[in-house]
Amino acid sequence: MNRILRNMIVAIAALMALSSAHAQQDMKLLVGADFDMYFDNREYIDCRFGESQTLFSSRLTPTVGVEWNKYNRLMVGMDLWSDFGNNTVTFSKARPQVYYQFDNQKVAAYAGIFSREKMIGDYTDVMMSDSMRFYDNRVQGVMVQYKGDRGYAEISADWCGMYSEASREKFRIMSSGRYYIDNYHRRFYAGYNFSMFHFAGSKLIKDCVNDQLMLDPYVGARFNAYFDFDVKLHYFQTFQRDRDNDEKYLRPKGGMLQLRMAKWGVYLDEQLYIGENLQPYYRSFRSEAFPNGYGGELYAGESFYGTTENIYNITKIGYDRWFFDNTVRVNCFFAMQYDGTGWGNRQVVSVSVRLLKDIALSKKR
Fold first, then answer.
1. Do residues 252 and 240 touch, judged by C-beta distance below 8 A?
2. What is the rounded CA–CA span in Å between residue 113 and residue 67?
């Protein structure tokens, strides 16, 4: 804890020293804090492809930074994690966020270690599950975004594992885009999501090199008929290869219909997947290092998309809304899930707080 405080004090002192630079214009000091609580109770006794468990954690991220010339920011923060029920330590772990941000409304760029929340892509649970977004909340690398009148596009490179004795070499490239066909009403749109994950070995774990690619083109429509409706049709095409065990790429694929209707923050979200096992290496024996398959080490998406029954359905009924000038968000839902073998359910509650204060540092003349 003392080390964390020392690092934060050093960062604040460095940024305050930077604020005295005479070459910058419109200098502002930024001070803020983010808080997230995540509760996820899973009851999958009758399901084959899900594991019953309860996840309950919180994350506090104090941040400090400087803004200059209106479009530039240099930010320093620290993720402080607490796992509920663990009374042996105050914070179970601490992970830094240090990044540069350029944002002129149309184009945004990030470099360093920053929150995954900065991403604007409409990535589904097939590519990244709710729990993965919470517990693996940082992008370590770079990201570029474009936001136009008729849509958006982004690409990010996340170097999430360095080759060493302690960790395997891993990196993930993600990209997303959307184009509104009718610009004025924005009722009809088409888009894509893309993910490429390279999963290699370490100094202690040889071989086990995997390449995983997924492409998700989709079309959708939004309209209002008392409720706000959003309907999307996805097609998933994957290319996967375990280099040490397979000579050719596996190419499982499938489709998903997604329907969401909402009013006053209350929503119903229905997702029906029909297709092949999109996670063929999740449970199958591959090597002595991974006797039960690669599991969540390789796949960031919801494990139910590894169903071998060619069907997966999830129905969510929940409430999602921001309060107090968009500083506090509450999102809770109850979900029923069917994996082709049995029914399961989830109860999820998440609370988020976003606070940021800017203080002008430029002298008035």
1. yes
2. 17
Q: Is 71 helix (H, G, I), strand (E, B) or coil?
A: coil
Q: Kindly write down the DSSP assignment for every residue of 82-112, as one continuous string.
A: EETT--S-S-SEEEEEEEEEEE-SSEEEEEE
Q: Are 218 and 192 in contact (CB under 8 A)?
A: yes
Structure-token pair, residue 188: 């009809």
pLDDT in tens, 197-206: 998 877 777 7
Q: What amino acid occupies position 7?
A: N
Instruction: Please tell me the pTM assigned to this model.
Output: 0.89
Section 217-224 average pLDDT: 96
Instruction: Count CA atoms within 13 Å of residue 119 on its CB side.
Output: 27
On whether the CB atoms of residues 151 and 163 are closer than 8 A, the answer is: no
Which helix (H) or strand (E) segment is 363 a member of?
Answer: none
| Residues in contact with 10: Cβ distance below 8 Å, sequence separation at least 6, in sequence order | none
Integer-rounded Cα radius of gyration of the chain = 22
Q: Are 91 and 144 in contact (CB under 8 A)?
A: no
11-69, pLDDT tens digit by residue? 555 555 555 554 467 899 999 999 999 999 999 999 988 889 999 999 999 999 999 99
131, containing H or E segment = helix 130-135
Do 141 and 116 touch, CB atoms closer than 8 A?
A: no
Torsion angles phi and psi, residue 308, rounded to 5:
-100, 10
Which helix (H) or strand (E) segment holds residue 6: the answer is: helix 2-18
